[in-house]
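Problem statement: downstream parser choked on a complex file, so we are re-checking the raw output for the zinc ion run. The parser issue turned out to be on our end (a line-ending mismatch), but while we're here, posting the original submission so the record is complete.
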Amino acid sequence: MTILCLICHEELSQQMSWTSFLLSEPKACDECYQSLRKINSPTCPLCFRPQEDDNVCQDCLTWENDPHWKSILQQNVSVFEYNDSMKELLATFKFRGDAALVEVFQNEFLASYKAHYLQKKLDFGIPIPLSLERLYERGFNQAKLLADYIPLAPSDALSRIHHEKQSKKSRHERLTASNVFSVTDSSKIRNKKILLIDDIYTTGSTLRHASKVLKDNGAASVSSLTLIRS
Ligand SMILES: [Zn+2]
Ligand SMILES: [Zn+2]
């Protein structure tokens, strides 16, 4: 039986016994998997940025010192660093429409959820929605694929109003732009503890905008789980 690495498409070289096959089917070769770096402590306690100590980082202090954004996002947890291998992989994942690639991360993503969020008894998991144009372009929402690995009830309470290329804007423009997210039915999220799920935490702006509309509509708390911390 031939199994190909989902990342480089080379044949997996390891000899598999029936036991290892039944326990967990490998999705990527050792070389590809080991080129990805899991985030180790110490990290910023709010955004999971890998750093020298476990103090709140300067970016988070900026967010938290702004009364408009203070405590909007309770905490972010990420799984992998944004190294060169991950950049390459993410580009494939997003732009080549290779939805199967996400399976490589299933076990680690679930393990992070269990380690950081299982005890918190959250109510819903909400993947950051794509705009309809983007969804049509790409064919799948990578955040939704990741959310499917988490044993948390899904919710469709959040929608994305219109397309916006966040990356082309300055920090000030991003912060003052009207919120691209809206809540479809606020009765579903009132007093609920919500976990937002996305592929990458970059500036934290997308997650905070989503979190802001959820909290403005009565959510008790909003945290996030992201595959990558850039
Ligand atoms: Zn490989
Ligand atoms: Zn931080």
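For whoever reads this later: The radius of gyration is 18 Å.
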